[in-house]
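Margin note: ligand = S-adenosylmethionine.
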Amino acid sequence: MISNRLKSIAKYTNGFDILLDVGSDHGLLPIYAIENHFVKDAIASDINETPLIKAKENFSKHNLDIKTIIFDGIPESNSDVIVIAGMGSELIIKILDKTLNNAINLKRLILCPNTDYYLLRSYLNNKFIIVDEEVIYDKNHFYEVLILEKGNSNYTDKELYFGPILLKNKSELFIKKYKKILDSYKSIVDGITDKFKQDEIRNEIKMIEEVIYA
Ligand SMILES: C[S@@+](CC[C@H](N)C(=O)[O-])C[C@H]1O[C@@H](n2cnc3c(N)ncnc32)[C@H](O)[C@@H]1O
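Resulting structure:
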């Protein structure tokens, strides 16, 4: 069964031709994108062979002829939309750094890391424009999906932290996410012994309150 997180990510592939799903694992995202006619064709890649064996089984169950590639990062292909999801931001940055130049036909990049959105947005600043963003809630966890197209951006620190589009829209899920973060910061801040760390958290609390209660 495909998760709500992957369904939400997949809809941003709509209207493109060939999807490349990097770190595809079970292959559920390309199956969903093709069966819903978001894309015409798809490729599933993964650094490991074992997940791709499972993906191939899933493709044949759905009568889909989706190509698989074993590769560390982004393999060379003619895909115009690439998804990298379900990994940490540090790994996504490593992948982009080493292999983004293989994406010769890239028109849209869709990233959905598990954490460290500030780190990822900071890396992408000046390289990509964030054309859309969404907070996704799935299995008790908040995710953010970033929809990127090539271009020059110059986001402020606050935009890199919250996401420029998320900050503008302040959706219900965005507010819920930051209320949860506030609760957890407030429950630990007084007990932090490292003064520097404590001040950092206090500043973050102030910044979040200014945004969500504005
Ligand atoms: C947790 S799964 C995420 C699966 C799917 N993308 C999702 O969001 O549900 C991470 C997958 O990334 C693959 N992976 C890890 N490092 C990779 C790399 N450098 N290049 C390609 N795939 C990688 C793993 O083998 C694993 O199948």
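Residues 170-214 form one domain.
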